[in-house]
């Protein structure tokens, strides 16, 4: 779905990196929070890509190409940030640098590779905007973003990412709660709330 030739050339550099793509298929999306299981990173990324394809076409002034490229790459640094062969944790580079910065650096490196192989330059402004989407996708300094979203595509990736992450957490905690009699889960520290477990279908059934 990406029509921008410079972005396609860059994305192909990532896709053609077989070792990276194998890690991308296996890695969790987190050590503890959303999609924290093998294959979770790929599942989360595909979910956000599908959300982007549904939402962004409603906003013709927003670049779908940039949103899709940013979505594909927003968490790719987690392949090097997390350990997941035996137990989930963080690598040294994950703790010292983090997945956001790792991805931004990789974008620069892959762009140079693409330019060297094809002889086609990738516009510096486009590259900087893609890096910004990645650097700002957590949405605030408090949650680890070194930059705040500065243009529509960046804020779009932040919210689309957050939709999938938060819905996964809410549904997971509903399914995992052991008290089948209560309409509420225990207090969830990661969400700072208890979750109301009754689904609309359940509420309708209770009225019969």
From TrEMBL:
What residues does the HD Cas3-type domain cover? 34-208
| GO molecular function terms noted in the UniProt entry | hydrolase activity
Q: Which Pfam families match?
A: HD (PF01966)
Q: What protein name applies here?
A: HD Cas3-type domain-containing protein
Q: Which UniProt keywords apply?
A: Hydrolase
One of the protein's GO biological processes: rRNA 3'-end processing
Report the source organism: marine sediment metagenome
The secretion signal range is none
């Amino acid at each position: 779905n990406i029509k921008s030739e410079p972005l396609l050339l860059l994305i192909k550099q990532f896709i053609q990196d077989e070792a990276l793509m194998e890690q991308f298929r296996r890695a969790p999306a987190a050590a503890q929070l959303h999609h924290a299981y093998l294959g979770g990173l790929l599942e989360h990324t595909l979910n956000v890509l599908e959300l982007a394809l549904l939402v962004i076409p409603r906003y013709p002034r927003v670049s779908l190409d940039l949103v899709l490229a940013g979505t594909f790459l927003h968490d790719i640094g987690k392949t090097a940030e997390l350990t997941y062969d035996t137990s989930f944790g963080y690598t040294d580079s994950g703790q010292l640098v983090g997945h956001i910065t790792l991805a931004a650096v990789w974008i620069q490196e892959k762009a140079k590779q693409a330019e060297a192989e094809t002889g086609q330059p990738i516009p510096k402004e486009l590259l900087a905007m893609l890096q910004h989407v990645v650097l700002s996708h957590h949405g605030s300094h408090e949650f680890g973003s070194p930059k705040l979203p500065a243009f529509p595509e960046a804020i779009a990736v932040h919210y689309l990412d957050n939709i999938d992450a938060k819905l996964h957490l809410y549904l997971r905690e509903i399914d995992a709660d052991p008290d089948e009699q209560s309409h509420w889960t225990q207090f969830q520290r990661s969400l700072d709330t208890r979750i109301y477990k009754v689904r609309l279908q359940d509420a309708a059934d209770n009225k019969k």
